[in-house]
Write a structure and sequence with these properties.
Blueprint: E1 4-9, H1 14-24, E2 29-35, H2 44-47, E3 57-58, H3 61-68, E4 72-75, H4 82-91, E5 95-98, H5 105-118, E6 122-124, H6 130-145, E7 148-155, H7 165-181, E8 199-201, E9 204-210, E10 216-224, E11 227-235, H8 242-251, E12 258-260
Parallel strand pairs: 1-2, 1-4, 2-3, 4-5, 5-6, 6-12, 7-9
Antiparallel strand pairs: 7-10, 8-9, 10-11
Helix pairs in contact: 1-8, 4-5, 6-7
Bound molecules: nicotinamide-adenine-dinucleotide.
């Protein structure tokens, strides 16, 4: 069986190294390249703690695409410059699976066009944990019956963006349901501390907590007279994202456009 050739972009980051370990453990996948602005010249297997594997980190995406001949690029970098990196990946004929968060709508639109033209997969998943995808689906179900919702997301203190991509995705999906039934108006008259009511997305307030001790957690709270319903997901280790990432790599060849959310391939 021909192996799926995979490169990791942002390979030296926390998620990138986790992907290197996960990809290397699968017999149908072959890690053929590693791109990162940090760690150039180092052996990625060694950095990932799985022993040297001869895949040397490069800080030049074009040369990694050329030499590694990937079928799929797995990306966990930063939103800044993501559009240009993603466009280069697609233009080389490589499918893209990305978990990078904070990507703006204009960039997504541009990539959607390139993906459609090239008939190539772009899978953007703000959360690769299967439980988180289910949380969002359950929240959409609950929103059909309970018309008031707030989201609290809790992440580690080194996270660069707020709210989290997962919270934005959940809020958008709940807000889509509420747009049909009438958007809630927040009754708060006096805000004594800026941000006390969080940020509002289509009537759904989103609150971000950043503290050491958390990795990634989220509560979606629905309220109705005399009752509340809390849907909570906790990521305890980055391993939780890997089954979703591996599934996305294996699914990439049958997706011919841009899709957002792991639920599209579950
Ligand atoms: N979708 C998910 O399930 C999920 C889970 C965790 C984190 N994330 C997201 O993944 C991204 C990475 O998270 P992390 O915790 O690994 O961060 P990190 O800071 O540990 O790693 C990011 C890596 O990207 C590299 N990088 C930065 N700019 C780059 C560029 N221009 N070109 C190439 N490489 C570049 C950095 O050098 C670093 O090695 C973030 O956007 C985070 O929010 C998503």
């Amino acid at each position: 069986m021909k192996k799926i050739r995979v490169i990791v972009t942002g390979a030296c980051g926390r998620m990138g190294l986790e992907c290197v370990r996960a990809i290397s453990a699968e017999s149908d996948l072959e890690l053929t390249g590693a791109f990162d602005v940090a760690g150039a010249g180092k052996d990625i297997g060694e950095l990932a703690g799985i022993g040297p594997n001869g895949v040397i980190v490069s800080d030049c995406l074009a040369s990694v695409l050329k030499s590694a001949k990937p079928d799929v690029a797995v990306d966990f970098t930063i939103a800044q410059g993501f559009g240009a990196r993603a466009a280069s990946i697609l233009k080389s004929g490589t499918r893209l699976v990305s978990g990078t968060t904070g990507i703006d709508a204009a960039t997504i639109k541009k990539l959607e066009k390139i993906a459609a033209e090239k008939k190539l997969c772009v899978l953007l998943a703000p959360n690769f944990a299967v439980g988180a995808a289910l949380m969002t689906q359950f929240a959409q179900m609950a929103a059909e019956r309970m018309s008031e919702c707030e989201i609290i997301e809790m992440h580690h203190n080194r996270k660069l963006d707020a709210p989290s991509g997962t919270a934005m995705d959940t809020a958008n999906k709940v807000a889509e349901v509420y747009a049909k039934s009438g958007v809630r108006v927040d009754p708060t008259k006096t805000i004594k501390l800026d941000g006390a009511r969080g940020g509002s997305l289509g009537g759904v307030s989103v609150h971000s907590v950043r503290l050491p001790g958390f990795l990634a957690s989220q509560e979606v709270i629905f309220g109705a007279p005399g009752q509340t319903l809390t849907i909570r997901h906790d990521t305890i280790s980055r391993e939780s994202f890997m089954p979703g990432v591996i599934l996305a790599i294996r699914s990439a060849s049958r997706i011919k456009k841009l899709v957002v959310g792991l639920e599209n391939i579950l």
